[in-house]
């Protein structure tokens, strides 16, 4: 098994965003430095993914992230989108081969929420994954391609979770959210957790500082395109929110 190293900045930072007083709409633009650990299998080729957080920008080709949240007294709605394109390679055993991985990843999430109180909310929704990897095995000396496998896969995971909001003084809010999903509908199982502190710099703007983890175990027994992905992603997050 060959070991690959790459990092993807992505996130679901708005999975729990603090709301400014009397504001019902919030837009968030954010980035998340992610370390990844796991394995991906495309056709006959597999790649171990071992991502140190220190390599955040080394292999990133393009990324875009944003979210929207609407709040009423008892209900909420949230939409989140992340796209990232990456490339990475790693030398194989005894320096004879080199494994190259190109990965495009799109994650879309749509949630509803029911508020038991100002501090506690039930979250339910779906998370859409579109993963398109290509793995190439090359001769390290000549660069010739020995084997290649490509083709993406997409799936939808239902999810359910809780979101907790705790004000800290007049200018700060602590937010935590956790959810589980998949249940064999899309992935076999997935879970996600986010915590962040929001600093309200004005009535309309906030800065967000946090950390999140997302774990997914997906298997396509038809072995078409992406056949297997067992991966955990996590890292620090920072964003800016506009409430209106």
Q: What is this structure, in a nutshell?
A:
By secondary structure, this protein is mostly beta strands. It has strands at residues 2-4, 25-32, 35-42, 45-50, 60-71, 75-91, 97-115, 120-139, 145-150, 153-168, 172-181, 189-200, 205-219, 226-243.
Element layout with pairings:
Layout: E1 2-4, E2 25-32, E3 35-42, E4 45-50, E5 60-71, E6 75-91, E7 97-115, E8 120-139, E9 145-150, E10 153-168, E11 172-181, E12 189-200, E13 205-219, E14 226-243
Parallel strand pairs: 1-4
Antiparallel strand pairs: 2-5, 2-14, 3-4, 3-14, 5-6, 6-7, 7-8, 8-9, 8-10, 10-11, 11-12, 12-13, 13-14
What brief labels describe this structure?
about 240 residues; mainly beta; Lipocalin; ten-stranded antiparallel barrel; 14 strands
Can you walk me through this structure?
This protein has 244 residues and is an all-beta fold. The chain has a single domain, classed as Lipocalin. Helix content is 0%, strand content 70%. It has no helices and 14 strands. It has a 10-stranded antiparallel beta barrel. Strand 12 and strand 13 form a beta hairpin. The chain is elongated.
Q: What's the average pLDDT?
A: 81
- The coarse silhouette is elongated
Intertermini distance: 51 Å
The helical percent reads: under 10%
CATH topology: Lipocalin
Instruction: Please give the number of β-strands.
Output: 14
Order of helices and strands: EEEEEEEEEEEEEE
Rg of Cα set: 19 Å
CATH class: Mainly Beta
